[in-house]
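Provenance

Sequences were taken from public entries as deposited. Structures were produced by running a predictor on each sequence independently, with no templates supplied. The record for Ester cyclase from Caulobacter radicis is shown for reference.
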Amino acid sequence: MTLSTESQAAIAVVRRNTEQVQGQGDWALFEDLFAQDFLDHTPQPGGTPDRAGALKLYKTLRGAFPDFHADIHWQVADGDLVTTYKTYHGTHTGGPFLGVAPTGKAIAFETVDAMRIKNGQISEHWGVANLYKVLEQLGALPAPTA
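Predicted structure for Ester cyclase:
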């Protein structure tokens, strides 16, 4: 199976977002990659479903976890829609996260998201993240019992 040119280009945009914006804090690239009318269909609690909300979330994550980065396990595309399964990693040495003061602890959590790419920019997002696991790893929740 070969991907269409449209799908290949869409995957490249999403990968740049994951690796360079989220993983390196390249905020100038964020400005290039996110459409002005970007819509997040699944914003985090307290966030907004727009471009400003996405940027705030990314900056919050990098602020709390300065070494924040992802391992992309797989990506698939159907035309302009890219779905990605990845594991985020970081060390909680920056600011607070979800009300938890910096702990110095390493975290890892899985996400699945879908992003629509139009005219080379991210225009829509849907996603789920295992933030319960983050709170558990930071010691904010009890560890599961057997």
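Helices lie at 5-22, 27-33, 51-64, 131-137.
The chain has one domain: 5-137.
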